[in-house]
Write a structure and sequence with these properties.
heterotrimer; A alpha/beta; B mainly alpha; C alpha+beta; B: mainly alpha; C: alpha+beta; 8-stranded mixed beta sheet; 3-stranded antiparallel beta sheet; Asn/Gln-tRNA_Trfase_suB/E_cat (chain C); ligase (chain C); nucleotide-binding (chain C); glutaminyl-tRNA synthase (glutamine-hydrolyzing) activity (chain C)
Chain lengths: 486, 102, 480
């Protein structure tokens, strides 16, 4: 049961092969029994999950069910959940129980899903390895000596380990796609503004976007349809109808033009990973797509641009954590300044503090033009590169990451080396485009991902491409052996 | 990627100034390590300086979208009890902080 | 040395919207602490701002009112600093692209002259909460009800030269914004707060001296006193050959002095950058024009109209047009009474005098315009004299009803009946033999003066109700 996809579970529920309570109980037992080795959950909510599973079963029995009614899933611990602790992987919010739900949580609950718990993550979504969590590192189910990727590492690991069929994630610079690639699952970062950010703890406002993480493109389509849509409480949410993302999943790929950016296949891409990507592209070509070499000439600006904009926005987004209204507060502050500086010293982890300092520096007097403004200009150049490519091609494809999951601790002492891991994913956030990672092979027993990038609001085309690929391949059905290969 | 010649000369004093602005205490024995790592990051991002961005308009939103306006209606109700139940220190409905000096 | 003060004002105006600028919380003044602070206002994690259309409309109304350029593409920025009454750790404000650009308007001075004052810009921003310094075991209490109330910050050019001009500017601004209905302008409740930038320079110089900023001065009177004090303080320093320190000071009304603010000692670096949770505000021409259509007659337009239409001098017209309710009151009285000059005189002298004495505003005036108009009609139709009218007015003020009711109840109607008056004139002449003799002996010129005595006696006898014209005619006839 735990290896079924969302679509399969939905069928089983409708056909009364099992009840939502049975699936929920089974998965909760798996989490209780197995998650000690992965650490993918921060919080589980057994009672609430069983209660909503029972309610879902009633709706199923009454014939009043939608496609997601009774489907268990998990939320990244960045989404506020009313009455359930929302830590964002930080000591700062270790005691934070929000009295409200994020729009994503609300929509998925309204669709009938059952929340099993909250998944582990890099603190405030800052990280590419899930080692920056107050609750400890997450282990990759394929190899527990390796990282699962980050920042949505808990969601990716939980899906890969068969603890949940799907989970929500957020992606500011690759935080859905990179862990999806490392854990051998399918993840989609939609167009900026497609899904409401309300109630999602902010990292970098102009880059953050929520999305689904699951085993298949079809599941991502089902989830995206429930998550997407205009939210008048988020000014950056786009008021545009939500298409039926499942409608075109099976459409043949004949005539699809796929662009391969020269810059994504050069130095830095590990050979074995490159081979997997080439094989995947060959499969798409076999299905009738044409492969076109394209160029994103400003790609070399991506990493510095991102690592100015994201920390700058984060540095002020995180100013609200001051020990006054909620969250962590240091003991016995001597005065107001002590309250602020010690609360923030003790409440934030090292990487978060580093990014706040870098962002503060980039915005401070005398540096604004050289850093932030310059980065916003470079950001336009980077986006315009993509828009130019999309005049020639329908989809851009390449590797999600330079290689498969790296070892725990391997890069945690070198922030810059860690940042370079995101080289292929960051630009998509800067440009606000939809991007996906699809399992595309194994390198030394560890998954690698094919990244697909689409035009703004063309999630359906990405899902179609990924789905057709998954109809012809079985990488997405592979599951790690229990306990990984360690 | 990081060429030491372009490394901005950020020193511990400047780090402490930035930390003061960001209201983050850095323990004395950690200033050197923090400075070192931040200098590395700044050296990396400094490669952007070489980019030609003449006449490029800064982009704040990838869709170049514009703001929508909300009707002037009261939609919120008093939820003080729920909000203050999760506050570190409150009294008589007020949030408490160490004495503020004007 | 003779020093010339150079003064610019920054006025923070709370806009009269129902809900806050970025959230759906109410903006009512005086609610229980933190009962009007929503998750957005409290900066709870994941909360986002959405811009209130009415706040933008009010700002644009102000801009159109002062003939300013309207920012068709304005941008909100974050102004970053830590303070317990600022929950997000930044204030959403407008820095480089404000909604209102350069404009100007005319102020009237006490001596009747007028001056044009430049407005540098006006921008939208959110108000902060309040720190309550009463003692909570040595701690400060924070009330965030006010956090997120829309503010329009109006920055003047340094065009003002003394305290009186600054006050005149503030009064004119107050008049404008209340005319526009974009703010209640209630200074006591903090709806209009003023920061004063002030520096001195040698008279005749055109360079600027070092300025001090005086924060949060909240009444016309305190603005005047704070400026006066600051001019004295700075000129003392300069006269002694010292230098003024650029700093932020607080005005202490109890001690009538300004002193430096301790909390602002650390140099601020606000790290302004475009607020990524909001998008640029783009205003279409049609929208702006639709707002223009809703503009009421502005104070100076009304003043000019009053002067022309009612033949009032500029000063009187200015007094009557200073506030919209007063102007409306005056116009109602003038219309119903049928004589604008007398109406203007009554409103300005009797009514405003009485209001001032009771420290009341026109809004709480106990005498409705219709009643005052009726009173004036009774003067005009000779039912009562001007003197009696003042009595009637006092009675109306005390709530004794409209003019006719008071006149009837108190029997104040003027006596014009010749028979009745003739008896009184006879009685006076009979009792004033000496004065009659004197009168008869006097020449024509002197007689005119002496007749006043007889008129006075008749008025006294009639308790002021005799029609003076009829009395004069009778006396002229009887005394020969």
């Amino acid at each position: 049961m735990h290896n079924q996809t969302v679509a399969q579970l939905a069928r089983g529920l409708r056909e009364k092969q099992f009840s939502s309570v049975e699936v929920t109980r089974h998965l909760l037992e798996r989490i209780a029994g197995l998650d000690a080795q992965y650490n993918s959950f921060i919080t589980t909510c057994e009672d609430a999950a069983l209660a909503s599973a029972r309610a879902a079963d009633d709706r199923l029995a009454a014939g009043d069910a939608g496609p997601l009614t009774g489907i268990p899933l998990a939320h990244k611990d960045i989404f506020c959940t009313s009455g359930v602790r929302t830590s964002c992987g930080s000591r700062m919010l270790d005691n934070f129980v929000p009295p409200y739900d994020a729009t994503v949580v609300e929509r998925l609950r309204d669709a009938g899903t059952v929340t099993l718990g909250k998944t582990n993550m890099d603190e405030f979504a800052m990280g590419s390895s899930n080692e920056n969590s107050y609750y400890g590192a997450v282990k990759n189910p394929w190899d527990t000596n390796c990282v699962p990727g980050g920042s949505s590492g808990g969601s990716a690991a939980a899906v890969a380990a068969g603890l949940v069929p799907a989970a929500s994630g957020t992606d500011t610079g690759g935080s859905i796609r990179q862990p999806a690639a490392f854990c051998g699952i399918t993840g989609l970062k939609p167009t900026y503004g497609r899904i409401s950010r309300l109630g999602m703890v902010a990292f970098a406002s102009s880059l953050d976007q929520a999305g689904p993480m699951a085993r298949t493109a079809e599941d991502c389509a089902l989830l995206l349809e429930a998550m997407a849509g205009h939210d008048p409480r988020d000014s950056t949410s786009v008021n545009r109808p939500v298409p039926d993302y499942c409608a075109d999943l099976d459409k043949p790929l004949e005539g699809l033009r796929i662009g391969l950016p020269r810059e994504y296949f050069g130095e830095g891409l590990q050979a074995a990973t490159g081979d997997c990507i080439q094989a995947a592209l060959k499969e798409l070509e076999n299905q009738g797509a044409s492969l076109v070499e394209v160029s994103l000439p400003n790609s070399h600006l991506t990493i510095p641009t991102y690592y100015i904009i994201a920390p700058a926005e984060a540095s002020t987004n995180l100013s609200r954590y001051d020990g006054v209204r909620y969250g962590y507060r240091c003991d016995n502050p001597a005065d107001l300044d002590d309250l602020y500086t010690r609360t923030r010293e003790e409440g934030f982890g090292d990487e978060v503090k580093r990014r706040i300092l870098v962002g503060t520096y980039a915005l401070s007097a005398g540096y604004y033009d050289a850093y932030y403004r310059k980065a916003q200009q470079a950001r336009r150049l980077i986006r315009d590169d993509f828009l130019a490519c999309f005049e020639q091609v329908d989809v851009i494809a390449g590797p999600t990451t330079p290689g498969p999951a790296f070892g725990l601790g391997e890069k945690s002492d070198d922030p810059v080396a860690m940042y370079l891991e995101d080289v292929y994913t960051l630009a998509v956030n800067l440009a606000g485009l939809p991007g996906m990672s699809v399992p595309a092979g194994l390198v030394e027993g560890k998954p690698v991902g094919l990244q697909l990038i689409g035009r703004h609001f063309e999630e359906a085309r990405l899902l179609n491409t990924a789905h057709r690929f998954q109809q012809a391949t079985d990488w997405h059905t592979r599951a790690p052996s229990q306990g990984g290969n360690a | 990627m990081s060429d030491t010649s372009t490394k901005p000369s950020i020193d511990p004093d400047e780090i402490e100034k930035i930390a003061t602005l960001a209201r983050i205490r850095i323990a004395g024995d950690q200033v050197a390590g923090v400075t070192h790592r931040i200098a590395d990051i700044l050296a990396m991002v400094d490669t952007l300086q070489a980019a030609d961005t003449t006449d490029v308009e800064p982009m704040a939103n990838p869709l170049d979208a514009v703001q929508t306006l909300r009707a002037d209606e009261v939609t919120e109700t008093n939820r003080r009890e729920a909000f203050q139940a999760i506050a570190p220190a409150v009294e008589n409905g007020l949030y408490l902080v160490p004495k503020v000096i004007e | 040395m003779q020093w010339e003060p150079v003064i610019g004002l920054e006025v923070h105006l709370q806009l009269a919207t129902r809900s806050k600028i970025f959230s759906g919380s109410p903006t009512t003044f005086g609610a229980e602490p933190n009962t009007q602070a929503s998750a957005v206002d409290l900066a709870m994690p994941g909360m986002l701002p959405v811009l209130n259309e009415q706040a933008v409309r009010f700002a644009v109304m102000f801009g159109l009112g002062i003939g300013a350029e309207i920012g068709k593409r304005s941008v909100f920025d974050r102004k970053n600093y830590f303070y317990p009454d600022l929950p997000k750790g930044y204030q959403i404000s407008q820095f480089s692209d404000p909604v209102v650009g350069r404009g100007h308007f005319e102020i009237q001075l006490e001596d009747g002259s007028s001056r044009e004052i430049g407005i540098t810009r006006a921008h939208l921003e959110e108000d902060a909460g309040k720190s309550l310094h009463e003692d909570f075991h040595g701690q400060t209490g924070i009330d965030l009800n006010r956090a997120g109330t829309p503010l329009l910050e109006i920055v003047s050019e340094p065009d003002l030269r003394n305290a009186a001009e600054a006050v005149a500017y503030l009064k004119a601004l107050h008049s404008l914004v209340t005319y526009l209905g974009i703010s209640d302008g209630n200074m006591a409740e903090g709806s209009m707060r003023c920061d004063i930038n002030i520096s001195l320079r040698p008279a005749g110089s055109d360079t600027l001296g070092t300025r001090a900023e005086i924060k949060n001065v909240n009444s016309f009177r305190f603005v005047e006193k704070a400026i006066q004090h600051e001019i004295d303080r700075q000129s003392d320093i300069l006269d002694d050959g010292g230098q003024v320190v650029q700093e932020t000071r607080l005005y202490d009304a109890d001690r009538n002095e300004t002193r430096p603010m301790r909390s602002k000692e650390v140099a601020n670096d606000y790290r302004y950058f475009p607020e990524p949770d909001l998008l640029p505000v783009v205003l279409e021409d049609a929208w702006i024009e639709a707002v223009r259509e809703t503009l009421p007659e502005l104070p100076w337009e009304k003043r000019h109209r009053f002067a022309n239409q009612y033949q009032l001098n500029d000063y009187d017209a200015g007094v009557l047009a200073a506030s919209r309710p007063l102007a409306d009151y005056f116009e109602a009285v003038a219309r119903d009474a049928g004589d604008a000059k007398i109406a203007a005189n009554w409103v300005q002298v009797e009514l405003l005098g009485r209001l001032n004495r009771d420290e009341r505003g026109i809004e709480s005036c106990p005498v409705p315009a219709t009643h005052l108009a009726q009173l004036i009609q009774r003067i005009l139709d000779n039912s009562i004299s001007g003197k009696i009218a003042k009595q009637v007015f006092e009675a109306m003020w005390a709530g004794e009803g409209d003019a006719d009711t008071v006149i009837a109840a108190r029997g104040l109607k003027q006596v014009s009946d010749t028979g009745e008056l003739e008896a009184m004139v006879d009685q006076v002449i009979a009792g004033s033999a000496a004065q009659v003799e004197q009168y008869l002996a006097a020449d024509e010129g002197k007689r005119k003066k002496l007749v006043g005595y007889f008129v006075g006696q008749v008025m006294k006898l009639s308790k002021g109700q005799a029609n003076p014209q009829v009395v004069n005619e009778l006396l002229a006839r009887k005394l020969g």
